[in-house]
């Protein structure tokens, strides 16, 4: 074999072009016919042999590089599955006592193809987006863009400064017709309505509302000219119901992840108010008031782990920070804690099974979590073998061992390490 035809080592063989070229040079093509892009090396069909199989994959990769990004994702998944087929055949041969596959340069090439595919997928994801796409991108995807710590600090300070001029209200508990009235009223109309509530309140020199921003989930953000006016409104205990029935001050909740909670310590499927009151008693030094508790991860019903991570919510950012700094007392133990940032913990969609968003915000097609097809739902699946929609391996989309899941987890862990550790 000439030096040029030798496959690159795994460490250096990450560039797409050289890898595919070398595969091309070193494969004996056994048929002159060009395989179609959808040609599968499927079980049940006679296996064409490693060389021909690799030729199909190579041709596929070449056609992918000439296609638009939209179709590429599906094609890449097809090629990934094909590589798995070749590997399976090689392993079977090895098991039957054929020459050891470890020394086979083809294995090296397969790893290179795999690396090239991963590389291409990453490149596709980071491709330039249109404004509309960027606007609908879930926060975790946006978070991939690197923000320097200095910039982050400035933005954070800016946010805190802005809060001094703002008051946030929620219509979450308002009747449905009121919610839709707010939805359909323009910002000027809402501003006038909220000003009425301020005028009715017992405050000297009625502060003047400058405007209102409508945020997601029935949240209204009111802003004033000065921090002093804002503070007076905050202290005045205004009846916002005068503006719209059911409108109240929005109390943000601050989440703390408590790690290593013994599973029997709390039953999150049932009412657990009693348990939360006990937990508060154990943490009186922090004046903790827990308003809610949820599991950090979706629990698999058939699995019973000894411990779990639980997110507790409080309305005080300083108390939440105390819990983060000191830890959480439970059953005479001090448990590890960390700040809960929903976007920096794994979010997997129940509908399309992709990461980084929840099903309530999903704009994709529903996909079967077992076999990865998009023509039926998970509960209707009749497939014998699972095929993960995210990585193509034979497990369900939510399997904790999924390589894509691990990748997502590592990425978020890194982002968490870079994020501010406290709320205040
Ligand atoms: Zn989705
Ligand atoms: Zn299915
Ligand atoms: Zn997977």
Strand content: 5-15%
Tell me the distance between the termini.
64 Å
Oligomer: single chain
Number of domains: 4
- Uncertain spans, ≥5 residues at pLDDT below 50? 1-39, 127-132
Topology as H/E string? Answer: HHHHHHHEHHEEHEEHEEHEEEH
**What helical percentage do the residues reach?**
25-40%
Mean of the pLDDT scores?
79
Strand order, sheet with most strands: 2-3-1-4
Q: Helix- and strand-based class? A: alpha+beta
Rg estimate, integer Å:
28 Å
Number of helices: 13
Instruction: Let me know the largest β-sheet.
Output: 4 strands, antiparallel
Give the ligands present.
zinc ion
Record field, number of beta strands: 10
Shape: elongated
Q: Can you describe this structure?
A:
The protein is an alpha+beta fold. The protein has four domains: 16-125; 149-249, Alpha-Beta Plaits; 254-340, RRM (RNA recognition motif) domain (Alpha-Beta Plaits, 2-Layer Sandwich); 344-424, no CATH class. It has 13 helices and ten strands. It has helices spanning 16-26, 50-65, 69-95, 105-125, 131-136, 139-143, 149-163, 176-184, 187-200, 227-235, 273-282, 317-326, 403-418; strands at 166-170, 209-215, 219-224, 248-249, 254-262, 292-295, 307-314, 328-330, 333-335, 337-339. The strands form three sheets. Strands 2-3-1-4 form a four-stranded antiparallel sheet. Strand 2 and strand 3 (219-224) form a beta hairpin. The N and C termini lie far apart (64 Å). Mean pLDDT is 79; it is low at 1-39 and 127-132. The structure holds zinc ion (ZN) (3 copies). One zinc ion binds at residues 349, 351-352, 354, 357, 359, 362, 364.
């Amino acid at each position: 074999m000439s030096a040029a035809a030798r496959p690159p080592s795994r460490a250096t063989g990450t560039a797409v072009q050289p890898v595919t070229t070398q595969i091309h040079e070193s494969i004996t093509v056994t048929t002159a016919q060009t395989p179609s892009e959808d040609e599968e090396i499927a079980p049940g069909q006679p296996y064409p042999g490693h060389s021909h199989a690799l030729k199909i994959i190579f041709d596929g990769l070449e056609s992918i590089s000439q296609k638009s990004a939209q179709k590429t994702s599906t094609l890449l998944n097809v090629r990934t599955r094909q590589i798995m087929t070749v590997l399976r055949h090689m392993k079977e041969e090895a098991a039957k006592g054929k020459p050891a596959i470890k020394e086979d340069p083809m294995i090296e090439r397969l790893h290179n193809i795999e690396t090239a595919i991963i590389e291409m997928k990453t490149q596709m994801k980071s491709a330039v987006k249109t404004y509309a796409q960027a606007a609908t991108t879930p926060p975790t995807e946006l978070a991939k863009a690197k923000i320097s710590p200095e910039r982050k600090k400035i933005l954070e300070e800016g946010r805190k400064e802005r809060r001094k001029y703002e008051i946030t209200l929620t219509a979450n508990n308002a009747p449905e017709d009121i919610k839709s009235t707010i939805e359909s009223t323009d910002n000027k109309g809402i501003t006038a309505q909220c000003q009425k509530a301020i005028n009715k309140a017992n405050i000297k020199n009625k502060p003047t509302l400058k405007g209102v921003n409508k945020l997601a989930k029935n949240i209204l953000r009111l802003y004033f000219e000065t921090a002093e006016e804002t503070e007076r409104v905050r202290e005045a205990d205004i009846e916002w119901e005068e503006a719209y029935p059911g409108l109240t001050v929005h109390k943000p909740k601050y989440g703390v992840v408590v790690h290593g909670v013994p599973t029997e310590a709390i039953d999150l499927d049932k009412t657990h108010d009693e348990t939360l009151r006990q937990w508060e008693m154990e943490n009186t030094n922090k004046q903790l008031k827990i308003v809610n508790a949820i599991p950090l991860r979706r629990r698999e019903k058939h699995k019973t782990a000894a411990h779990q991570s639980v997110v507790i919510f409080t309305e005080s950012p300083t108390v939440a920070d105390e819990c983060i700094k000191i830890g959480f007392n439970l059953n005479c133990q001090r448990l590890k804690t960390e700040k809960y940032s929903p976007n920096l913990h794994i979010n997997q969609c129940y509908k399309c099974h992709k990461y980084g968003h929840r099903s309530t915000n999903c704009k994709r097609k529903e996909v079967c979590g077992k076999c990865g097809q998009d023509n039926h739902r998970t509960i209707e699946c009749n497939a014998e073998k699972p095929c993960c929609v995210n990585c193509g391996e034979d497990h369900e989309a939510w399997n904790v061992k999924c390589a894509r899941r691990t990748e997502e987890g590592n990425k978020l862990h890194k982002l968490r390490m870079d994020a501010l550790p406290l709320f205040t």
